[in-house]
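Design request, tokens follow.
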């Protein structure tokens, strides 16, 4: 079923007309309400009147995650707080998170795009959808939740973790759709096997997987192990959360709800738009948001756009599966982690040196973050008890700042290799 046929199957000209009107309005809104973006526009001599259609978008300055951090917490909101009905947050490049605020209309729009996404995936009103993304500041849980209710399907708001219970409820409630990260889906399959439950005996038929990169190989593995159709869903908090784009049952790229989120692909080095169909960094402008509209937001995600009509009948532009990121952000069990965050935690602990190495591995289907850190000469002791206390202190500091657990290993000073050039801080051994 196509949820909003008029929009999802609009011609290119119709779509461009809608986008142009909405973009023009958003540019004016931002210019008059966000001093930092207005200053950027003035610096390059651009006025709101210079943006008349989508074609003019490349005249506008970019927005980066650092702009949100510099305006922490609410400096990029364009409505008074009395209009904001929900806050969410995701990791920033330092300790401070990126905060996003939604008006009532924003929440309605978000539900609409998630409902479209679910319909693309083949979910219908009679489905029972188990939402195993985290509920809370992360956008995954509540995003999928309201989209499911808006569709009229049944939602099981179980949130993440508690794996045996997840499987038990799948059996008891007859869950037909599971929404979680792809790595958690593989873990569910492992635990099911341990519990002696054959996936074929469940009613599961569709998985809505996203929040982290995953490959076609991983898709095949999940589909075979869980006996379901595995659908890719994409989104980011700064734009709205999950539902910015989603695959249809043809699984040939994710349809972007481009009447709300205007995509571009740029070369991350020159910052110029790439030629049609080429791979580069994905950039989004939100053109209907009220709480925190954003222009030319650099997602750092690498992909390409496909403008051909899809066999499903939708004309919404598609983005290919993400091929990675142009920055050093890691996604560990769905949580965004920047090496710089680890560094700032270590800098606050006086016994350690700011020399560290992060290793990411897959244990079965779960991501494991390992941190090797040097202890300062005067604190390096033969007393196991003292070192163990320090190790615990670092582990707790990382858990509470980043929201992700790490296996910490303390090493003697000068153990970690020094390089003359860029330090290699991360070794990612995961095979997607
Ligand atoms: O991860 C929103 C989301 C929740 C998407 C649930 C899908 C499902 P953030 O925590 O702000 O938001 O992280 C956004 O995650 O820039 C990508 O790097 C990555 N990401 C999200 N979906 C995908 C995907 C949510 N399908 C960042 N494939 C984004 C690859 C993804 N990467």
């Amino acid at each position: 079923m196509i949820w909003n046929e008029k929009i999802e199957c609009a011609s290119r000209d119709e779509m461009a007309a809608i986008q142009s009107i909405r973009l023009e309005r958003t540019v004016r809104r931002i210019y008059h309400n966000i001093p930092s973006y207005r200053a950027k526009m003035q610096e390059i001599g651009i006025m709101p009147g210079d943006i008349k259609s989508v074609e003019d978008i490349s005249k506008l300055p970019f927005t980066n995650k650092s702009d949100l951090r510099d305006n922490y917490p609410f400096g990029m909101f364009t409505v008074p707080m009395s209009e904001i009905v929900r806050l969410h947050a995701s990791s920033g490049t330092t300790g401070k998170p990126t905060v996003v605020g939604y008006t009532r209309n924003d929440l309605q729009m978000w539900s609409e795009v998630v409902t479209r996404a679910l319909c693309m995936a083949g979910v219908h009103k009679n489905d029972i959808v188990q939402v195993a993304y985290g509920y809370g500041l992360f956008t995954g849980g509540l995003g999928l939740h309201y989209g499911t209710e808006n569709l009229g399907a049944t939602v099981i708001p179980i949130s993440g973790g508690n794996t045996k219970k997840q499987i038990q409820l799948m059996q008891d409630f007859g869950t037909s759709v599971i929404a979680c990260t792809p790595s958690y889906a593989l873990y569910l399959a492992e635990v099911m096997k341990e519990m002696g439950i054959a996936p074929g005996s469940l009613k599961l038929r569709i998985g809505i997987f996203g929040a982290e990169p995953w490959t076609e190989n991983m898709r095949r593995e999940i589909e075979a192990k869980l006996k379901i159709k595995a659908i890719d869903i994409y989104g980011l908090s700064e734009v709205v959360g999950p539902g910015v784009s989603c695959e249809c049952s043809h699984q040939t790229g994710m349809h972007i709800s481009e009447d709300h989120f205007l995509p571009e692909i740029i070369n991350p080095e020159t910052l110029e738009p790439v030629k049609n169909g080429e791979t580069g960094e994905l950039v989004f402008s939100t053109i209907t948001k009220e709480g925190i509209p954003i222009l030319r937001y650099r997602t750092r995600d690498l992909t390409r756009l496909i403008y051909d009509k899809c066999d499903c009948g939708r004309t919404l532009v598609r983005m290919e599966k993400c091929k990675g990121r142009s920055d050093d952000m890691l996604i560990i069990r769905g949580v965004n982690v920047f090496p710089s965050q680890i560094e700032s935690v270590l800098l606050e602990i006086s016994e350690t040196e700011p020399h560290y190495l992060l290793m990411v591995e897959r244990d079965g289907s779960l991501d494991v973050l390992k941190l090797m850190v040097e202890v300062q000469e005067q604190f390096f002791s033969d007393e196991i008890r003292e070192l163990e206390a320090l190790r615990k202190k670092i582990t707790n500091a990382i858990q509470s700042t980043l929201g992700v657990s790490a296996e910490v290993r303390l090493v003697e000073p000068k153990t970690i290799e020094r390089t003359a050039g860029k330090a290699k801080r991360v070794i990612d051994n995961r095979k997607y």
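Comment from the thread starter after seeing the answer: thanks! The longest strand covers residues 352-363.
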